[in-house]
Amino acid sequence: MILKSPYDELADAYHATIDPDGAGLGDPTFDELVGDPRGKRVAAVACGQGRDARRLADLGAEVVGIDASESLLAHARELEQRRSRGIEYVHGDAQDLRPLADRSFDGAVCYMALMDIPALEPTLRSIARILEPGGWFVAAITHPCYKSPAHGELVDHVEGTYRRIAGRYFEEGPHDSATRWEILPRVSYHRTLSTYVNTLVGAGLPIVRMAEPIGDKPVWKEAAGLLYVRCETAKS
Ligand SMILES: C[S@@+](CC[C@H](N)C(=O)[O-])C[C@H]1O[C@@H](n2cnc3c(N)ncnc32)[C@H](O)[C@@H]1O
Hints:
Strands 3-2-1-4-5-11-10 form a seven-stranded mixed beta sheet. The protein has helices at residues 11-17, 28-34, 51-58, 70-82, 120-130, 193-202, 219-222; strands at 41-45, 62-67, 88-91, 105-111, 131-142, 150-156, 161-167, 173-176, 187-190, 207-211, 226-232. The chain has one domain: 3-Layer(aba) Sandwich (Rossmann fold). A hairpin with a 4-residue loop joins strand 6 and strand 7. The protein has 236 residues and is of the alpha/beta class. The protein is built from seven helices and eleven strands. The termini are far apart. Bound molecules: S-adenosylmethionine.
């Protein structure tokens, strides 16, 4: 079966909006959780057109990016041709990571993509499989508590500040949102916070740090828009 991604049809619009010049991801929380990856072999899982892969390479890692969208990978490879960072881009499914060998990476990242991947458990088990003992995994997701399937914001007219509201939190699985950013597919996959934590731990990726940075917009000063984790596998 030919592997496709819902991003294939959106790839040009996505690329025109997300790091079109190829500077790489600029996210201090990501950098902080990754630490110093110099000389380490790192997999960028669901790398899209490679902004996370480029950042890791600029920090000194040897990077393999893998994604289900050939159209986004074509943009990644074009940027790599324009300015080589030594990144290898591979077409593959995060749910099995078949092209990547067992215990072949020191670290892995999955940046803003777990919500787009239908099956969480096989994805996390595959990430654990490709890591060396004592390896690390950094993921960033939309915050499952505040970006649940029914979310929105209210203005508190007394204080003049925003309040985040979130509903349908317990409805895990695919949900279709007409208001999702137009460069993203309408369908994404919601899981509760405990499902994320328990599935990470069950896959052999125990969390050692979490981060919930305060955002720029008023509503993201009230509630966390993003959630980051760093996990580390057992040393032997
Ligand atoms: C929001 S984009 C994030 C891409 C990149 N990490 C970034 O931050 O720009 C989500 C990515 O997940 C990829 N994706 C979705 N399902 C996938 C799967 N089963 N296997 C691999 N990649 C997948 C999409 O093709 C898309 O590139």
